[in-house]
Amino acid sequence: MTTISECGPNDVYAAACPCRDMLDLLANKWSALALGALEDGPRRFGAIKERLQGISPKVLTQTLRRLEEHGLVSREIFPEVPLRVEYSLTPLGVDACVPLAGLRLWVEDNIHRFPASA
Amino acid sequence: MTTISECGPNDVYAAACPCRDMLDLLANKWSALALGALEDGPRRFGAIKERLQGISPKVLTQTLRRLEEHGLVSREIFPEVPLRVEYSLTPLGVDACVPLAGLRLWVEDNIHRFPASA
DNA sequence: GAGCCTAGTTCCCATTGGATACCATGCTCG
DNA sequence: CGAGCATGGTATCCAATGGGAACTAGGCTC
């Protein structure tokens, strides 16, 4: 059994490596979209929900909380009326957006090549 | 219902765009790992299973079949004894590996920045 | 015929995904 | 004063998925 410290070169292929969990966190439809939605600056819950067409509030909350938990997103509450809650990218989140944006763009650019995508 | 041609700029943020399905297919832990496992050439089922530490045969079959279905991977059966089945990347699969490799590498390079990843 | 090899399949259960409905706060309008 | 609306969620429920363990099938080899 490989311990974490021995996980050495941080191999996503190693089951015990924390990389696996991070990959699982990022390699996820809603995570990739949510992080992308914050690329242009902080956004409110409602705005993100509007951008991520088709997401339910529960799943959006789950997604954002999970990203927050792992230090990719920060959540700020403004006790105004009506209540305002803003989500924004942390520096780590900003950096994570680079490969994720690459993935999103690749999909958009290559969608026509997929067979029977109808 | 939005048709493909009307889906316009192929927006992954649009719920009805087939991009969404493709993103869901690729933005997945096992898909990203499986495609990466085939980057160096065709591999047998057993070899892939060995590489993707911790995956169960059922999930691997599901993953590979789904990738095959969408034209990213091709499956070839050699009716030898014992049976040999080789999986390899299609040209589309090869291209898809680029952004996915970027994601895997980013995770490996930045894992130390994640809080409490231990 | 026992056992092994590969490449799965089958069964079953726990977790997750997701839709819908509802809630709390506190304005603002009538 | 109560009705209604806005925001940012929960609560509830059900279906789909993820995933482990065990089993299968064809066909050598011992």
Automatic annotation (TrEMBL), chains A, B:
It holds the Pfam family HxlR. It comes from the Bacteria. Gene3D superfamilies: Winged helix-like DNA-binding domain superfamily/Winged helix DNA-binding domain. Residues 17-115 form the HTH hxlR-type domain. Keywords: DNA-binding, Hydrolase, Transcription, Transcription regulation. InterPro entries: ArsR-like_HTH (IPR011991), HTH_HxlR (IPR002577), WH-like_DNA-bd_sf (IPR036388), WH_DNA-bd_sf (IPR036390). SUPFAM superfamilies: Winged helix' DNA-binding domain (SSF46785). GO terms for molecular function: DNA binding; hydrolase activity. The keyword Transcription applies. This is Cinnamoyl ester hydrolase.
